[in-house]
Write a structure and sequence with these properties.
Radius of gyration: 12 Å
Strand content: 25-35%
Order of helices and strands: HHEEHEEH
Low-confidence stretches: 16-25
Shape: globular
Length: about 90
């Protein structure tokens, strides 16, 4: 799932259309991505998706992304984050 998240974040960073992002794999079902401004992204995923939260945590610990804010709304978690330079390099090779 980490690879799927990195790939989708990298695609969002490069402003790929939503249809292509949605096609990144079954592991990201229910996720939504948006570019907030250059280098800053927003990811939303179902609140009960523990593997999603674990993937974000692992990627942050590996310094591939930086989580800026996180909030829970109703049944989804919304995270603002930045892909680090290291994260961009790794995602580009996926």
């Amino acid at each position: 799932m980490d690879r799927e998240v990195l790939t989708a974040l990298n695609a969002t960073l490069r402003e790929i259309e939503a249809q292509e992002i949605a096609g990144t794999g079954k592991a990201l079902a229910g996720w939504a991505f948006a570019a907030l401004r250059p280098g800053r992204l927003c990811a939303a995923f179902p609140a009960d998706d523990r593997s999603a939260r674990a993937a974000i945590t692992r990627l942050a610990k590996a310094r591939l992304l930086s989580v800026e804010t996180e909030s829970t709304r109703d049944d989804e978690v919304v995270v603002e984050l930045e892909l680090t330079t290291k994260g961009e390099r790794v995602a580009a090779t996926q």
